[in-house]
Amino acid sequence: MKDKLDRWSTGIKNRWESASGSNVSKRWFVLPPLVLLAFLLVLGFLWSSEPGPFDVIAVTVELAPTDQSTITTGSYTTATVIYTVETLLDKRGGYLSNDITPPSIWLDNIPNWEFGVLVQVRDITRSMRNDFSRSQSQSTEDADLIIAEPQFNFDNESWMLPATENVYREGVDALYSYLTRLQDPGNQDAQFYARADNLKDWLGQVEKRLGSLSQRLSASVGATRHNTDLAGETDAVQSTAASQEFSVKTPWYEIDDVFYEARGASWALLHYLKAVELDFEPTLEKKNALVSLRQIIRELESTQQAIWSPVIMNGSGFGLFANHSLVMASYISRANAAVIDLRNLLEQG
Fold first, then answer.
1. Dihedral, CA of residue 313, residue 319, residue 321 and residue 322, to nearest 10
2. 115, 133 in Cβ contact below 8 A?
3. Residue 208 φ then ψ, to 5°
4. Is residue 174, in this structure, part of any structural domain at all?
């Protein structure tokens, strides 16, 4: 009997030791993937932080090859565009829109923020090439801006052959060359004409961008709208017939995408307007329009307030929960209304 008990206890001991060893080996097998996953989650969280505001004057003094007392017209705008693109490429995590590896491939907020910034970069470099740097419609385009403007219109999601970052850096290099030539008093080929009509044309693009963002943000709750495509002109026609009423609603999975695109566009535009205030100051003072411009800046600064919610809320307009998209739409709509007023002031003699 004793031998049987000994064999039984020995068998239980052996099985216990075998099972314990197996569990230990399993834990060591599972631990590295868990550590890697935790690392990627923390890295994704760190990379999802948006860049903060910067001082336009300090950036221009840093980038322009001269001191603040001799900064030429157009240098503030050019240096600010350069810095926003460099921030896009060199911020924490780098440029994420074309990344195909974890954790970037899981992130969508910052890539949409990047696209919002990029659209504003494209708009203002187009205006710099077509308007700001040219005295008349028949004048010659600036050699550096001919290179810079198309580079920023390259595919924003290309990860190789060539990579988006490399193409955008070529555009930045061309802008640096333009900025250097602007600062050279002996070089009369590089010009920046701070005229009311040039500013008005760029603000026309800004007006359309803000109007579109406002509509897309407001569609987070859905609405039925009247078709106003041909309103205001009795003889206007369109290519195909459209319904007199239609429903618009942003899909739930795109609500945060639109929100962060608006945040990025507002961040870039906020700094461009601050630069424009410096470069176009005599023109704005003559039109008594400085206050109007500063009001636009004030509205856009409100769009950059900290977000305390871990997710973008999409409550109903008068419901219990917040709707971040409607709050953003409110600020952008007011900024857009101020842009329209500013353009009217610039049109006046």
1. 50
2. no
3. -65, -40
4. yes
Q: pTM here? A: 0.86
DSSP annotation string for 113-158: HHHHHHHHHHHHHHHIIIIIT-SSTTSPPPHHHHHHHHHTTS-TT-
Tokens of residue 348, six digits? 């006046």
Residue 161: its pLDDT value, please? 85
DSSP state of 51: P
AA letter at 52: G
Rounded to a whole number of angstroms, the CA Rg of the chain reads 28
The conformation of residue 264, written as its DSSP 8-state character, comes to H
Here the tokens at position 96 are: 């994420």
- How many angstroms separate the CA atoms of 149 and 169, rounded? 12
Q: Is the bond leading into 103 cis (omega within 30 degrees of zero)?
A: yes
How many secondary structure helices (H) and strands (E) does the chain include?
Answer: 11, 2
Q: Which residues pair with 246 in a beta bridge?
A: 225
**Between vectors from CA 198 to CA 73 and to CA 185, what angle results, nearest 5°?**
25
Which parts of the chain have pLDDT scores under 50? Answer: 5, 16
Type of residue numbered 156: N
The CA–CA distances, whole Å, from 284 to 9, 148, 195, 299, 300 equal 95, 27, 9, 19, 19
The tokens for 288 are: 């008594």
CB of 231 closer than 8 Å to CB of 111: no
202 occurs within a structural domain: yes
Structural domains counted in the chain: 1
Residue 12 lies in a domain: no
Would you say 122 and 153 are in contact if contact means Cβ atoms under 8 Å apart? yes
Residue 226 forms beta bridges with which residues? 245
Residue range 294-307, pLDDT digits in tens: 999 999 999 999 98
Residue 309 falls within a domain, yes or no?
yes
Q: What domain range includes position 145? A: 35-42+49-231+243-347
CB neighbourhood size of 92 (10 A): 13
d(C-alpha 115, C-alpha 268), whole Å: 11
